[in-house]
Every structure is written in C-alpha cells, then in structure tokens.
Amino acid sequence: MGGYILKRLISAIPVLLGITIIVFLIMSLIPGDPATAILGSYATPENVAKINRDLGLDKPLVQRYFIWLSNMLTGDFGRSYSLNRPVIDEVLERFNATLILAGTAFVLCSVLGILAGVVSAARQYGFADKAITFVVLIGISVPSFFLGMMMILLFAVNMRWLPVSGMFAIYGGGDLPDLIRHLIMPSLALAAVATGVIARLSRSAMLEVLRQDFIRTARAKGVHERRVIMGHALRAAMVSIIPVLGIQAGFVLSGAVYIEIVFQWPGVGRMLVDAILTRDLLLVQGGVVFVAACYVMFNIAVDVAQGLLDPRIKT
Amino acid sequence: MPALRIENLAKTFPLKKPLFGAAAPGVRAVRPMSFDVETGETLGVVGESGCGKSTLARMLVGLLEPTEGHIEIEGRALDTADPAAFGKLIQYVFQDPNSSLNPRKTIRQVMEAPLKRLHRMPRPERDARISEIFASVNLREEFLDRYPHEFSGGQAQRIGIARALAANPRIMILDEPVSALDVSVQAQVLNLLADLKEKFGLTYLFITHDLAVVEAVSDRIVVLYFGAVVEIGKAESIFANPRHPYTKLLADSAPVVGRPLTAPEQKGSELPDPLNPPPGCAFAGRCPRATDLCRTHVPELREMGEDQLAACHHPIED
Amino acid sequence: MTAFLKLLFRNRLAAMGAVVLTAILILVLITPVLPLQNPDATATADRFKRPFTEGYLLGTDHLGRDLASRLLHGTRLSLAVGVVAALIAATIGSAIGIVAGYFGGRTDNIIMRGVDMLMAFPYILLALAIVAALGPGLMNALIAVAAVNVPFFARNIRGITVGLAGREFIDAARLAGMGHTRIILTELLPNVLPVIIIAMSTTVGWMILETAGLSFLGLGSQPPQADLGSMLGEARSALISHPHTSIVPGIMIFLIVMSINLLGDGVRDALDPRLRSGALSRPRATTLVERAGDIPAATDDLLAIQNLETQFHVGKRIYRAVGGVSLAVKPGECLGVIGESGSGKSVTALSVMGLVASPPGVITGGAVRFQGEDLIGAPYESLRRKRGDRVAYIFQDPLSTLHPLYRVGEQLAEAIRSHHKLGKAEGRARAVQLLKDVRIPNAESRVDDYPHEMSGGMRQRVGIAMALANEPDVIIADEPTTALDVTVQAQILSLLDDLRRERGLAIIFITHDFGVVAQLCDRVAVMYAGRIVEGGPTRAVLDAPAHPYTRRLIACVPELGGGRRALAAIPGLPPAVDDLPSGCAFAPRCDKARESCRAGDIPLAGTHPRAVRCLYPEEAV
Hints:
The structure holds three protein chains of three kinds.
Chain A: H1 2-27, H2 34-39, H3 45-55, H4 61-73, E1 79-80, E2 85-86, H5 87-122, H6 127-141, H7 144-158, H8 176-210, H9 213-221, H10 225-263, H11 268-277, H12 281-309
Antiparallel strand pairs in A: 1-2
Helix pairs in contact in A: 1-12, 5-6, 5-8, 5-10, 5-12, 6-8, 7-8, 7-10, 8-10, 9-10, 10-11, 10-12, 11-12
Chain B: E1 4-13, E2 27-37, E3 42-46, H1 53-61, E4 68-73, E5 76-78, H2 83-86, E6 90-93, H3 107-117, H4 123-136, H5 153-166, E7 171-175, H6 183-200, E8 203-208, H7 211-217, E9 220-225, E10 228-234, H8 235-238, H9 245-253, H10 292-296, E11 302-303, E12 309-310
Parallel strand pairs in B: 3-8, 3-9, 6-7, 7-8
Antiparallel strand pairs in B: 1-2, 1-4, 4-5, 9-10, 10-12, 11-12
Chain C: H1 2-10, H2 12-30, H3 67-103, H4 105-119, H5 123-134, H6 138-165, H7 168-175, H8 180-216, H9 228-235, H10 244-271, H11 273-276, E1 288-289, E2 303-314, E3 317-329, E4 334-338, H12 345-352, E5 361-370, E6 373-374, H13 380-386, E7 391-394, H14 398-401, H15 408-417, H16 424-437, H17 443-446, H18 456-468, E8 474-478, H19 486-503, E9 506-511, H20 514-520, E10 523-528, E11 531-537, H21 538-543, H22 548-556, H23 595-599, E12 611-612
Parallel strand pairs in C: 1-5, 4-9, 4-10, 7-8, 8-9
Antiparallel strand pairs in C: 2-3, 2-5, 5-6, 10-11, 11-12
Helix pairs in contact in C: 1-10, 2-3, 2-10, 3-4, 3-6, 3-8, 4-6, 5-6, 6-8, 7-8, 8-9, 8-10, 9-10, 15-16, 15-18, 18-19
C-alpha cells in the first residue's frame, strides 16, 4: 500500500508542473507588456524597471517561467500591489476561511448525498424514493448563488434566525457557536447542488450493483437483506461513488466563489474575484496555483482511498 | 505450396516499465512455433485458456504484429500489420457474433464494406455477389435491411461467415465460431461451414477449446499449451493415441457418455505464471511423467510416427 | 424515432420539462416582435417599481429599466451563450477523445495527460484565470466556459471510444480494407454520437449556469448588455430592500435549468435500451409470488418441485419461462437437468429459493416443498434461514458471483455467520478447513486472497466451499463447470461426486452437456420450452431416448471418438416463450409431428421410473 501511495504522489509531480505551466500560459495571454499589466496604475518607469529586475519580466517566456517557478518553490509568490502584502500571506489566510466553508459543505454533501441515494435505491419507487428524487431535482437546478440569496431573505431577514453575512459576528463573536451560526446557510447553499448530484449517482450506482450476480449469491447464502444492502451493495457501489466525490469536491470548491460573494465570506474566492477586477494579476496567479495544487493533493487522497477500498487496483 | 506457413512465429507482450529498475520481461503469449496448413484442409487448433490461440489467430490475419518469425500466405510473406493487404486472401470469423457486427449498421452495409474496400466492386456487381453469398449461407435476402440486434446467435454468426466470404478469401480463420451458440444451432453452423468449404474450395484454421467439435471437423489437429505447440497429429488418431501427456490429459478429461467419473491423473490444475515462466517444459508442473530433464530443457517438436509430431522428452508409446 | 418520442413523453416529468423549455424558447424567439420596452432605457424616476405596477409587468430595476423586457433579452443571451459554449466544448472535446481512444498507445497517453492536467483544476479557477487574462466580457466568459468543459467531453468520449475500438466489428472493418479516417467517421462515430448527445444534454444546463455565474461575478456580460447572471449580480445590493429584482432573474434561471435537466433525464432514459426492458429496477429480496390455482399436497421427498410455474412480465409481454415443472430428489441422489438456453432450467433452479429477479419474475403456480414445507410464499425470514443452510447454490461464473471486494475467507465465514454464531478466529479456521475440503492447496494463505487473484477453477472451488459451509441437505448447481477449461472441469466434477457420496448430499445439476450428466447424475430430466419433456435414469434415457428432441439433441452433439462426420442438426429454433404454440412445443421442428401433436396439452406419461411428454415417443415407456 505504501508503494501505491508513493506512486500516486510521484505521479502528482507532473500534474503540479502542468498546472503551473497552464496558469503561466494563460497569464501570458494578457496583451501588452507584462510589467505594465501587473503594475496597472502604478506603472511608473522606476517601478517597471524594478519589477522587471525582480521578476525578470523582460526576459523571454521560458526563462520567465522558470524564474517564477523557482520563486514559488521557495514560497515567494510575489507581492500583491493592491493589498501591499506578499501574495502567499494573503492566500493562506483566505484559504483557511474557504477551507472551513467548503470543507463543511463537502462533508455535508457526501454524507447526505450517499444516504439519500442508498435510501432511494433500497426503497425504489416507494414514497421516500419519490420524495428524495423530487428534492434532488430541485437541488441540482437551482443556481447556488440564487439559493444563497433566497436563504438570506428567508432565514436572516424574514425569520431572523441566522446572521445575514460574514464569518463571525463583528462584535463579540469569534468562538465556535458563532462560527457555526454563520456557517449554516452558506454551507447548505454550497452543498445543495453537489448533494443532489451525489444522491443521484449513489442511487444509480446502488441500483446497478444490486443487479450483479454477487448480490444474488449473498441472498442465496442466506445473508440478511439489511446486510446485503449496506454491507455488500454499498461497499461495491462506493467504488463508483468515491471518484465522483473527488470531482464534486472540485465543484464545491468552485461554488465557494459565489457563496463567498453572496455571504461576504472572507475566503480565497472573493479574493480572486476582487483581484481580477482590480487587475492584481500576481494575486490571481498565486491564488489559482495554490488552490489548484491543494485540489490535486486532495485528489491523491481520494485515489488512495479508492485503492484501499478496491483491491483490484494494482498496488 | 501450403496455403499457410508460419515459421518461428512468436508474440511477446511488453510490460510497462516500472518507475525504478528495469522492465520485467514481457508476457510470452506465443512462443516460437512453426507449422503448415495445406491447401484445402481443415487444421484444428485446440487448447485451453492461456494457450495463446487467440493471439496466434490475430497475428495470422494481420491484426497483431508478431514479435518474431514470419507468415507466408500462399507463398507471399505477410509482413505488414495491415489487414487490408491480405484481406482478399485470408479472412476471419469472430467468436461472438453480436460484438463483431456494428450495432448501428444494417446488414447490407456490413456486407458491402469488404466488397467496396477490398474489391472495389461497382454497385450492380456487389448486389449480385451479396445475393450469391446469402444463398450459400441460407439467409433470406430480406435480412439485408435489418440491424444486428434483430437476429439470433446462429443467424448472426452466419452473417459473420457471409461477411468473411464476401471478400472471397482462400483461407478462413475461424476463432471459436460456435462456442457462443446453443448446441442445436452449433450443429447447423458446423454443417454449413463444411458445405461452404467444399463449395468454394476453402482452407480452414479452426480454433476451439471443445475437443469433440475439433475432432468432428478437422483433418489435422494442433494442440497448444501455454503458448507452444505440444502435439500435431491426424484428427482421427490424435486423441485415441496421443503422444504428449497433455493431449492425453485433455482426452481423458472430456466428459464422455459411458465413461465413469474419475479425475484424470494430474498434479494440480494451475497454469504456470505467465510473468514468471518456468525453464524447461511448461507442462512439467502437472505432468505425471516429468523428470529433471523436463524441468530444465524445453522439448523440441519432433516426429513421432506417421504424421504425428510431439514436443516431449518422454512421449507416450503405443 | 416515434417509439423514442413516445417513450420520452410517457415520462411526465420530461414532458413537463419539454413544455416549459419550449415555452421559454418560443418567448425568446419572438422577443424582437413583442411590444416590449427598451431593455436598456433607464428611467430613474421609476426605479424599483414592484411587479404588476402600471406599465411594468415585472417591475423595474435599480435604474428604472423594465424588468420584463430585460428578462427576455437576458434569457436570449444566456441561452445563446450556453448553447454555443456547449457546442464548442462538445466538438473539440469529442474530437480529442475519439483520437485518443481510437489510436491508443502513446497518442492516448499524451493527450490524456494534458486532459488530466486541465481537469486537475476546480473549474472556476481555470475560468477565472482565463477571464483574468483576457479581461472581463461575455465573449471571454464564453471562451472560458467552453475551454473548461472540453476535458469533460474528452474524458467521457475517450472512455466510450476505447470500449468500442476494442470491439470486434472494428477489427472486421480493418479486415474489410477500411483506413483509419474512414473507420472513425463511418464505424465509430455513429456509435459514439448518442453518447455525445447525452453528454451535451447534461452539460448544456451547467454551461448556462456557469456563464450566468461569471456574469453574476461581474466578469461576464458587461453593462449595458445583460444576461440573467449579471441581472442577478446587479440586484444583489438591493436584495433586502427590493427582493423582486433578484427573484425575477433567479427564477428564470431556475426554470431554464430545471426544464433542461428534466428533458435531459428523459432523453437519457429513453435512449437507454435497458430501461425499456425494465432492467434498471432493483430486484427484491425474494421473488414475487402471485399464485393462482391449487397447491399440490406434500410428498416425502427431500426437495420436491411441484407443477412450478414462473413467468417474466416485461411490459405487456408474458414469458412463460417455467410452465409446470415437477422434479424431486431424495437424499444422496444426483438429478441432472438438461436443456438449451431458453429451456427454463436455470429459472426453475432459482425459483426454488425465490432468487428469480423480481421484477420482472413472478411465480404464478405450483409449490416447492423442502421436507414437506412449502417454500413458495413462505415469509422472508423462514426462507432466508434455509438459504445457504439447508439448500445451497453453486452458480456458473464465480468471477461475477463472488464479491470482488471481500476476501475469500471473509465470504466463506459470512456464509456460516448468517446462520450460526461464530467468532472471528473460529470463522477463519472454519474457512481454512472448507478450502481444504475442496482441495485447494495452501489453504492458509489462500484464505486471504481476493477472488480476482485466483484462477477460474480455484474460484469455483471456493463457490463449492461456500455452498458446503453449513452442510446443507441439497445443493443446486447451475452450470457450475460451463465456464471452466475441460481439464479443470474434470477435477471439479470428480470433487462434487466424492463430496456427494461422502456426505449424502442431494444435488440438482443443471447443464447442457450430456457427457457431464452421464458421468455425474443418477437421473436426468430433459427440459424444452419451459417444461420437462423426458425423465428417467441417466443410462436408460441416454441409451434409448424416448422423446424425439432428446434423441435429436444427443445426435447433434459431437462426441469424442466419433471421428469426422456431419452432425445431424435440428432445423429451426426453440420457440419464444412468450408465444408458445398450443400442443407440443417441439412439434414445429419434429419430423414425426402430426395433427394430434398440436391439438392440446400433452401430459408427461410413462411407467416409473421413466416418463415422456410425447404422443409418439421413440421408445415405449
């Protein structure tokens, strides 16, 4: 098993490199001189010369890439001109908040989704199945930002149960219950679509598995139906479900951008959007690479989980 | 001149090179083998799983490129991995009739493909030829406008045979052509194949795992084990008087009405590991007659009597 | 095509989706000719009018612009952009996927590496990066969204192509002389196109959402141009004070995406052939029982199948898979059941313990008595207790019948644990012993293997071990050696025979091979079209078959030692069991058939121990 983990980690390296190349290439599409593009309104001749020296922006493309890459590997993601602090500091701080939001949403959508799917499949065509199918259908069709906005209207404004926005109360907050109260709506809004997708997929994976011969064998052995569904069928269905969890994590992370805007959550998504609008390109670059790299590592973990679950994957 | 001649034909599938260290030697699916198929004969090729018969078949029609050795079809060397080059000489009938027909093509389109591509026949000639072939395989012409899923296994297999015939080959490779069919339909298709062979003067290479079937249709039989030829002999005598212990094991294992049930003598029933093949004879691990010589030296295929060859250090005498 | 549409619209939700979508599309198409206000005309005096105010059907936004008009124009834009993005992503992605999947090898490797790297990004990051580089704007957002979705198509289509490229009809096309381009375009593409269309139906909804999302963030359509996303984005600051400006565009997005999803689901379901035969519903724990008619009285056999009738109800068709079968075994006996595919032998065997898949299976008549007790219609717990404990099964293909993710030892222990208490250590010990009983060498280490790590013969031994785990009284073996090599088969049959004699087991052995039956079974029953047509001691039946079908079946199977010969084939095909002729089912293919054969039901008759269902049998019984 250790060998498998090592192999997966090693295979991540070209992907990580690829990510940096892709981001770099995309950023090089910016028309005009890179130095002026980055500096924006701060592009005085002295600043341009300085930044060219520091980042080698006047060098040829390939060289620029390697300078940028080697800087990143030492932790230097450049400096955000609009916030006047190192990119990495800003990104780390904001990513922490996003992690809390997206992490909660991911756990919610996985657990609820799989549960809903299993119940749906086990009681196919029953009331539970129909109800779940209906709710799921609504869930995957509502845009998450709209859902968030409607939730604010309903729960925060009309019923005043939950705070309107932000991660902590401005006065007197900062402890866990405060966080949780602020987390409820955004994480639910964020989880909605993914829960629906996972529920549907779990349902069809279960149905597919329940038609397999080994389920018939389990029944022929006299295994109780409860164990047939939860032990035999679910275990086999997880093999198809886990990769989808990995993909849905990406969607949850993406959706976090919208939710952070709607709920004023101080996360990395909001940071990126603001950075684009203020043309703070070093911040965009650094933020994208960092978050993408974290996602790659998460997917490695998903692969490893898959390998642990399914012995047929060659270790 | 034999219809088909293979010399030292072999195929090794390479393994992926691991991250550290050298690549392990590949899987030797087919070890160097040589034999001839005479014009007009049916050569049966029989073996169990892992013997390499499918790999061999695909090499013979050019669907797979051999690692070593060469193939001659009616004297011409087959040295390209392009099936189209030899499509007019040698054709293939697949095992599973359903997956060998494109589900989205009508039968007419299926039949026309070889005629258009290989023979470049104009329309009227194609129609005439298709009618002719369909009549030979006892299929009604109204089937031409239907889709594969509308046919039973036996009919689909006959369509597959018709398609192979359409190219007007001299030699047909039949890869388990009746294994996927019901017993009563098998007989129909086997009879049809025999009739066609006579009518069109074909040469057959008939691959199967079923001993009784291969005995009923072949002139000579080649027995394969673990990628190598272990015995070649006349169909009427090879199972009655086998020379190689594996051939004897096969013959003794086949359930025959009237024979009492005793497991034939063999030690274990496992094939050697293809990733770690033993030196010497591959059958030594299961052979009741194996000696140290067998375990270290690969036996050569030698003449053992009239029209019989076997690769064994201690062949069975009469 | 009409069948497809009918199937599609039978699904009410899909129909609803289609209606809503069509309504929206029509509205959007006629927008230019509708008497709408100018969507960009500001009128600050009329800001934030509520819906249903005079002159403004849906109210106005923060600049006094008519919301109804903006809504329709915005919808046009959102739809157009979403569809165009979907088409671009589908075309480019599918082309890449097909090339990678068809050519395989290095090409595939390199291409998929690139695709993997693109997929390594959460999609928004890529989209944001592209928009950051190109600058905010609707076209740039479209490019970003299309680019981000190309990998999805590439991956999916490559997967399908790889599966198809390995199929034999591609080989056949090469043998027919086609070149690669022609094969891709004429053989592969028609098979891949439905998948592309289905994939597009899934993604069109997302892409509309994704472009709306980018516009919502202010990175897509720029003022004054507005699509639904940017309308929502601009309305955000007035969410609490004037919610209608948010609700209107939000609901429209929801309606569009929902109807596309419903329709897409409907299209997928209608295109999936398995759904037509009801194959995607889950089988119940036991077969459905809807018995009509009398229940036969008990006998003193160990296991007696009495007049069993099992049908498959698929749509409107009823397949009489088992049409009144009676079999019985006493302890220590081996009964062989022979038949071809469609004869009903497997269904009969599965019906015994209620393992026939329901839907579509239904047991409609007769009884199955184990030690006198009727199993059909017995409560679930009573049946479950006997399954694997008193009556055990061995199935045909152990690779699919053993659970792929549990170790062999665990599965064996589970067989025992379902009926008796068993500790962990004891379970393992019993599993090892069972493996030894079926003569698996190195049982101590094999017990921790997974099924895929074993050979076919060994897996089947595990299957036998599992059946023996609780020392059952009856074993039902459904073609257990058909998928095995002949040398392995010989060993398995010998093993079964030894076990039977040692333990006094009763075995019902289903097969199509006469040789196997002759070697293993005391008695044999021949089935055709769901009924038994002949039965008796094996030797007697095989030496002197009474039923014409039995005789002809024996004659058309080549026997080792029979030499080269033409085989006496049986013309025609077995009947479809949803359309059985009256009288003898074999009559259409029988060379002795007469009028009386087709007249009415023919009973199974004869002097014990033989019986035959024929008016003019070959041998008098």
